[in-house]
Design goal:
The complex is a heterodimer. Chain A is α+β, with helices and mostly antiparallel strands. Chain A has helices at residues 7-10, 28-31, 33-44, 173-177, 179-188, 208-214, 221-224, 226-230, 342-351, 363-378, 403-416, and strands spanning 50-54, 63-69, 72-78, 84-88, 103-105, 109-111, 116-118, 124-126, 154-158, 161-165, 194-204, 240-244, 251-255, 297-302, 306-311, 314-322, 328-337. In chain A, the strands form four sheets. In chain A, strands 11-17-16-15-14-13-12 form a seven-stranded antiparallel beta sheet, sandwiched between helices. Chain B is built from three helices and eight strands, in the order H-E-H-E-H-E-E-E-E-E-E. In chain B, strand 4 and strand 5 (99-112) form a beta hairpin. Chain B has helices spanning 5-23, 45-50, 62-75, and strands at residues 34-44, 57-60, 81-87, 91-94, 99-112, 118-132, 135-145, 149-151. The longest helix of chain B has 19 residues, at 5-23. In chain B, strands 1, 2, 3, 4, 5, 6 and 7 form a seven-stranded mixed beta sheet that branches. Helices cover 25% and strands 44% of the residues of chain B. Chain B is globular, with a radius of gyration of 15 Å. The chains are: A alpha+beta, B alpha+beta. Chain A binds chain B through residues 102-103, 196-205, 224, 226-227, 271, 273, 276, 278-280, 282-283, 329, 334, 345, 349-350, 352-353, 356-360, 363-364, 366-368, 370-371, and chain B through 42, 44, 46-47, 50, 52-61, 63-64, 66-68, 70-71, 74-79, 148-155. Strand 11 (194-204) of chain A pairs parallel with strand 8 (149-151) of chain B.
Chain lengths: 418, 158
């Protein structure tokens, strides 16, 4: 029997994505509940790595952080050997999502409902009344603690960044990210000790892929974001390159800010403000860091769950947690490095004003995603047009292309068989 | 140390004028509620209580506040909305150098066009109020918000 929610996916007369290629994305890809259910199953719970956090968030044994992979709540916890485990937040007894705090440090993980008790590896240590009380009740004789551990995910840590997967068949993290994008990853995360600055969280009423698209789209920053185009941080005429992995699923947009902004990029870019100056230039007090090389920005998308941001002195990871086809949580974790002096920490925090839910630049992105979703909902027969720079997929040495979006959908169609 | 009734009354009026300025959308007048080197900060309670320094907005000094106002009116693309502030009774204590520490709970409703209102932010203002030449201004205004999963975005000051 086919589930009714899947009927649309199997309807050969009315396919979700009738056209070939990946440059014209139909509305249903963003709105259809059956498409979304398959995404959870094949992408978020399938053989893909999802970002769960930074190692520094759980500095000692028993320190935990609650987060999620797809919609499934998980706990990242450090064990006594110093290793990181990711355990599903679902008691093996009656399914309670027992961990409700965001972070903390515990001696053992206890489900308060019936006090089932687990160690940092998810192993069940004991259950109350196992042998009964005064000869009454108790668990059956064939009950084994070993048979009821917490669900333990595959875990990979690279230079302090933690990924997890529900699928045992997932390839190694290095192979998953691939050499093209590992270089962008290691640029920021080269093993230096990180320092946690804090979190920003926003719930964006749009499909989760729209956020991935946003950071695979070098076309918009120099148009939508006045600050980027006016102050030269991101412009179509800046020297840039786009990298993409062999599957087309991950990408990096790398660019150099202009030292001198001469004028408009091209006729008619209305976001450029010729005479705009800051009342307080400290907002853009950019200090070059040796590890950048010549590039001042590197935005990396690791499909499906995280964006790694280096935009001048501001550093963050941005985690995507889908909540249905039309909503996702977007969690920013800002950080610096252990060897930052106070001045650099202050600078990173000041430049954080550009990003996040109130950011001078990034607040726009949440807004346009919301309005895109509204457009897809109102016209279910619509298809997008992502054909800037052609219809193919591959790296580029400029920003005037939507090739990275096409890359993601090329991969998405393979995995989704749609 | 007790705070005299006249001072209390002036601080109550400062809060009322502050809320009215934002609720009326008179954003250009907003920086004038601060002393020149005042600090305005919107910070998640989660970060504040854990001693994590990140804010969603941290503006030090009136010039930076003016840049924000230019941003919300001219550079940040966003859906327009109204704000309504409800500020609770303040706990007022005298601090150093003629300053007052003022803590007040707040709720800010956001009403977008064609929509029913929603709660944009709920939390506490932790303020330091300065009296200069008989005029009360904020030396510090920290908006510590409880609802740390923000409904998409916060554009205007709260």
């Amino acid at each position: 029997m086919t589930l009714s929610t899947n009927s649309r996916l199997d309807d050969e007369d009315r396919p979700i994505w009738p056209e070939a290629g990946s440059s014209r994305v139909p509305s249903a890809v963003y709105t259809d509940p059956a498409v979304y259910a398959r995404e959870l199953e094949r992408i978020f719970y399938g053989p893909h790595w999802s970002y769960v956090g930074l190692e520094i968030e759980v500095p000692e044994p028993g320190c935990f952080k609650r987060t999620a992979v797809g919609e499934r709540s998980v706990i990242m916890i450090r064990n006594r050997k110093g290793e990181i485990n990711v355990l599903e937040n679902r008691c093996a007894h009656r399914a309670m999502r027992f961990c409700q705090e965001r972070t903390g440090q515990v001696k053992t993980l206890v489900c308060p409902y019936h006090q089932w008790n687990y160690n940092y590896d998810g192993k069940l240590l004991g259950v109350p009344f196992r042998n009964g009380v005064n000869g009454n009740g108790g668990m059956p004789e064939d009950f084994e603690l070993e048979s009821r551990a917490l669900n333990r995910l595959q875990v990979a840590v690279r230079n302090g960044v933690v990924f997890a997967s529900f699928d045992e068949s997932v390839e190694s993290l290095d192979d998953y990210i691939g050499p093209e994008i590992l270089a962008a990853f290691d640029r920021t995360f080269d093993g230096r000790k990180l320092v946690l600055h804090g979190y920003s969280r926003q719930r964006i009423p749009g499909n989760w892929k729209l956020m991935m698209e946003n950071i695979k789209d070098p076309y918009h920053p120099g148009l939508l974001h006045t600050w980027f185009v006016t102050f030269g941080l991101w412009r179509a005429d800046n020297q840039s390159r786009l990298e993409v992995d062999r599957h087309g699923r991950h990408a990096a947009m790398i660019s150099r800010k202009s030292d001198v902004v001469k004028g408009n990029v091209a006729e008619g870019v209305t976001s450029f403000r010729k005479n705009m100056t800051l009342n307080d230039p400290l907002l853009l007090d950019i200090v070059h860091e040796p590890w950048w090389g010549q590039d001042t920005v590197c935005m990396t998308t690791i499909f499906p769950s995280v964006i790694l941001q280096q935009q001048v002195n501001s550093l963050s990871t941005r985690q995507i947690l889908p909540l249905g086809p039309d909503k996702f949580d977007f969690i920013w974790t800002h950080f610096g490095f252990e060897d930052d002096d106070d001045e650099m920490t202050e600078r990173r925090l000041r430049q954080a004003n550009l990003f996040g839910p109130a950011g001078f630049v990034s607040a726009d992105d949440g807004e346009v995603i919301e309005f895109s979703q509204e457009g897809f909902e109102q016209d279910k027969d619509f298809t997008t047009l992502c054909e800037l720079g052609g219809r193919d997929v591959g790296p580029a040495d400029h920003m005037v292309t939507e090739t990275l979006i096409r890359g993601m959908y090329q991969y998405w169609r393979e995995v989704m068989e749609l | 140390m007790t705070v005299d009734l006249d001072t209390r009354q002036q601080i109550v009026e400062l809060n009322a004028a502050y809320a009215a300025c934002l609720d009326d959308g008179r954003y250009d007048e907003w920086p004038a509620f601060f002393v020149d080197d005042g600090w305005y900060r919107i910070v998640a309670r989660e970060n504040y209580e854990r001693g994590l320094p990140l804010s969603i907005l941290s503006l030090k000094g009136v010039p930076m506040m003016k840049d924000r106002i230019y941003g919300i009116s001219s550079t940040i693309f966003h859906a327009p909305y109204y704000q309504t502030h409800i500020i609770g009774p303040s706990i007022i204590t005298a601090g150093d150098d003629g300053q007052y520490n003022v803590a007040s709970s707040y709720v800010v409703y956001r009403t977008k066009r064609d929509m029913t209102p929603d709660v944009l932010s709920v939390g506490k203002f932790l303020d330091v109020v300065d009296r200069r030449d008989g005029k009360f201004k904020f030396r510090r205004k920290f908006c510590i918000f409880d609802n740390d999963t923000i409904p998409n975005s916060i554009i205007y000051p709260i």
